[in-house]
Specification:
Shape of chain B: globular
Number of helices of chain B: 0
Distance between the termini of chain A: 36 Å
Order of helices and strands of chain A: EEEEEEEEEE
Largest interface: A-B, 23 and 18 residues
Strand content of chain B: over 45%
Distance between the termini of chain B: 39 Å
Structural class of chain B: mainly beta
Strand content of chain A: over 45%
Helix content of chain A: under 10%
Structural class of chain A: mainly beta
Number of strands of chain A: 10
Largest sheet of chain A: 7 strands, mixed
Oligomer: heterodimer
Largest sheet of chain B: 7 strands, mixed
Shape of chain A: globular
Number of strands of chain B: 11
């Protein structure tokens, strides 16, 4: 099973600032089958990034993903009020599909 | 626009079987992988398993002995059964579909509480 570790656990930032979230895998994620999901309280996860760097439909270009192998990053270039949420990375390369523990991006 | 809706009892007694159905609209489930996920209150996400159009399934080994996912293609529905539930199975259960193993479209989720 691929274990995903996210850092930091909580990120306290102000609107307009840049957010950088990290996700490390215990073994290489083949074909960069790494996704990022955004989840707000009381809502379902929403796909943000897939294939490590491809934005999902309707996701603004302030969201970007990069990485390969075991190290992945989600960057939000300028935080908007609606971006404050919990973000989860997920690998969908190997069964069982697994998630990281999440990074909460909160308003400072 | 693909939309998913979970339905089923919100309260299940310990040792009984949890049963949920996901109804898909705006797309045919015959073209998708159909997943179930869950999230205990205040905790992270866990993949339960999926079924795809041939009826083939893949389950999380941690739940495999208790899980059955089935497909009703004419109704655009798929279902989850989780047997011998305990309080540890209390969670929001989500259905999700997508191409390949990527979960692109999610239902709103339904809270299932295991309690006597």
């Amino acid at each position: 099973e691929i274990v995903l570790t996210q850092s930091p656990g909580t990120l306290s930032l102000s609107p307009g600032e840049r957010a950088t979230l990290s996700c490390w895998a215990s073994q290489s994620v083949s074909s960069s089958y790494l996704a990022w999901y955004q989840q707000k309280p009381g809502q379902a996860p929403r796909l943000v990034i897939h294939g490590a760097s491809s934005r999902a439909t309707g996701i603004p270009d302030r969201f970007s993903g990069r990485g390969s192998g075991t190290d992945f990053t989600l960057t939000i270039s300028r935080l908007e009020p609606e971006d404050f949420a919990v973000y989860y990375c997920q690998q969908y390369a190997t069964s069982p599909l697994t998630f990281g523990g999440g990074t909460k991006v909160e308003i400072k | 626009q693909v939309q998913l809706q979970e339905s089923g009892p919100g309260l299940v007694k310990p040792s009984e079987t949890l049963s949920l159905t996901c109804t898909v609209s705006g797309g045919s489930i015959s073209t998708y992988y159909c997943n179930w996920f869950r999230q205990p209150p205040g905790k992270g996400l866990e993949w339960i398993g999926y079924i795809y159009n041939s009826g083939g399934t893949n389950y999380n080994p941690s739940l495999k002995s208790r899980v059955t996912i089935s497909l009703d293609t004419p109704k655009d529905q798929f279902s989850l059964k989780l047997s011998s539930v305990t309080a540890a199975d209390t969670a929001v259960y989500y259905c999700a579909t997508g191409t390949g193993w990527l979960a692109q479209h999610w239902g709103q989720g339904t809270l299932v509480t295991v309690s006597s």
